[in-house]
Amino acid sequence: MAGQTTSPNRTLKRLQELGEKQAPFASILSCADSRVSLEILFDTGFGDMFVCRAAGNIATPQIIGSLEYGTLVLGSKVLMVLGQTACGAVSATLKGDAVPGQIGSLYPYIYPAIVQAQSKDMNTVVAQNVRHQVDLLRHASPVIRS
């Protein structure tokens, strides 16, 4: 909060300690946005968080399986979905334009948040998208729900 880092668990020794076992306290679903570095944002280090990233912080089957692993197998006690302002995936979904390659495969995961938000305001949709992804995690995974 004060803008000062303690840089915990960011040493070679800590990394070597994790060679056989990891036990992150949190599992986090975040956007793949390169401007959002969770370890720096939360001032954590190696082995502290199990981070899954996908553009638009979307809960795909693969991401859900990964978060199940983080919570059930690794024992994370906190599960967080983190959205951020200026999310390119949310912005692209709002525009609805044709896009090359597989980028459009993100839209079906984000579009329900636009409908639920009943708004085209970026911040409103980003916040609703977080809530929508949390609901997906809760309903699609008995592991996470429990």
Task: Give the topology, please.
Layout: H1 12-17, E1 26-30, H2 38-41, E2 49-53, H3 61-73, E3 78-82, H4 88-95, H5 107-117, H6 122-140, H7 142-145
Parallel strand pairs: 1-2, 1-3
Descriptive report:
With 146 residues, this protein is mostly helical. The chain has a single domain (12-145), classed as Carbonic anhydrase (Beta-carbonic Anhydrase, Chain A, 3-Layer(aba) Sandwich), CATH 3.40.1050.10. It has helices at 12-17, 38-41, 61-73, 88-95, 107-117, 122-140, 142-145; strands spanning 26-30, 49-53, 78-82. Helix 2 links the parallel strand 1 and strand 2. The longest helix is centred in the C-terminal third of the chain and has 19 residues, at 122-140.
Q: What is the CATH topology assignment?
A: Beta-carbonic Anhydrase, Chain A
E-strand count: 3
CATH class: Alpha Beta
Largest sheet: 3 strands, parallel
- What is the count of structural domains? 1
- What is the helical fraction, as a range of percent? 40-55%
Strand content: 5-15%
* CA distance, first residue to last residue: 32 Å
Summed up:
By secondary structure, this protein is mainly alpha-helical. The protein has helices at residues 12-17, 38-41, 61-73, 88-95, 107-117, 122-140, 142-145; strands at residues 26-30, 49-53, 78-82. Helix content is 45%, strand content 10%.
